[in-house]
Amino acid sequence: MSALNLVASSRPTDGVVGWVIGLMETLGGPGAGLAVALENLFPPIPSELILPLAGFTASQGRLSLVGALLWTTLGSLLGAVVLYYIGALVGRDRTRALAAKLPLVKLSDIDRTEAWFLRHGRKTVFFGRMVPIFRSMISIPAGVERMPMAMFLLFTALGSAIWNTTLVMAGYLLGENWSIVETYVGVLSKVVVAAVVLAVVVFIVVRLRGRRRGGNRGRRSSSGRRRLEDEPGE
Question: Distance (Å, rounded) from C-alpha 122 to C-alpha 79?
């Protein structure tokens, strides 16, 4: 029984699992790479499923371990480059114009974000490739800021290689229990989502309080000016 048939016999083959199995059954390593490229573009396709499955498939001899690592990393690069060019197409001016229309967002927030990215862009792209949710999204600001392509490819490849190797090797070593990886990385993804939601809530609360204090100061200042105008002159 082939590795992919073994997976099919132990898990439902509809949905994403069946689709990935079909790609690897038909194309082998390039199919795994294509699945990872599409995962970058469509986050509902989880890398925590594709990569361990590719590792398990390699453990059964359906494709080589080196091939699984190379093709999945190439797929990560392909998906990242597409998102980079989407960010470049949107551009800095359109991004600022869109941000200016968002409630509670100031252009000074965008300026600070840009300055931070310019200082830490290489580290952000590198480490961002190892953080669920942000793995794909980090390519867009890199494109908006027109990070040099050679630099973008280098740090994307390095970060992706670490993430992909970790999950592929986990699937390779766990064998038929490869789906355990999906469970644990899924928990990590939920933690990241919770942290993002908390950060957004804190931002909104702080910004609303700042506006309220600013409004109160404005009313007190206006009231003080009216009192001075009402007092008789000397």
Answer: 18
Category of 41 on φ-ψ map: left (φ > 0), alpha (ψ -120 to 50) or beta:
alpha
- 3-state SS of 95-109 is HHHHHHCCCCCCHHH
Distance of alpha carbon 35 from alpha carbon 47, whole angstroms: 9
Q: Which two tokens stand for residue 158?
A: 């390095």
In terms of Cα–Cα distance, which of 189, 97, 71 is closest to 136? 189
- Per residue in 56-90, pLDDT (tens digit) is 888 887 788 898 899 999 999 999 999 899 989 98
What is the rounded distance in angstroms from the CA atom of residue 180 to the CA atom of residue 87? 35
Can you tell me the distance from the alpha carbon of 194 to that of 188, in angstroms, rounded to the nearest whole number? 10
pTM of the model: 0.72
What is the identity of the amino acid at 140?
Answer: I
